[in-house]
């Protein structure tokens, strides 16, 4: 019984990687089983609803990883602008290490499945909101007005997702660096405005 959670974890992590690299539709259950080294029966045990349930779990898992990473960077950064710059540098390094083959498992999966999959769409909404909340909290901790912080945080998520796509197409980190720099300036302006 102790191995069962490991198999679920392996399935979800493998699916997230495959969805990120090749897309949801191009990833089959047999490939997930083979690459996760999980017994085929474990897929049906943990995900009786099928591939859609695996997709929702993969999006939720990826979202939790992003939030964990961002929270760690927020604790180590001197403000939200630095948080953005450091996160962009991390993403740029990750993209370069994959020869720009990887994408965001959240966006890649959502683009293919929402609106027809409510479960995946809902998992994505939770993940993206949690990601934005880290940025919003960092802004508010520096005095930014809550509504402005929330809007800038949503803009940051949208911009980073777009920059990931541009980085993949250009095979360059530069779109991430540029997006983070402009967002950081907007973050810093919002903080200054709250002090006047």
Task: Describe it.
By secondary structure, the protein is mainly α. Helices cover 81% and strands 0% of the residues. Helix 5 runs antiparallel to helix 9.
- Into which percent range does the helicity of residues fall? over 70%
Q: State the end-to-end CA separation.
A: 60 Å
Largest sheet: none
Q: How would you describe the oligomerization state of the chains in this entry?
A: single chain
Rg: 18 Å
Number of helices: 9
Q: What percentage of amino acids are in beta strands?
A: under 5%
Mass-distribution shape: elongated
How are helices and strands ordered from N to C? Answer: HHHHHHHHH
Low-confidence segments: none
Q: How many strand segments?
A: 0
**Average pLDDT, all residues:** 93
Helix/sheet category: mainly alpha
Write the layout of secondary structure elements.
Layout: H1 3-22, H2 29-36, H3 40-46, H4 51-76, H5 80-97, H6 105-113, H7 118-141, H8 146-170, H9 174-194
Helix pairs in contact: 1-2, 1-4, 1-6, 4-5, 4-6, 4-7, 5-8, 5-9, 6-7, 7-8, 8-9
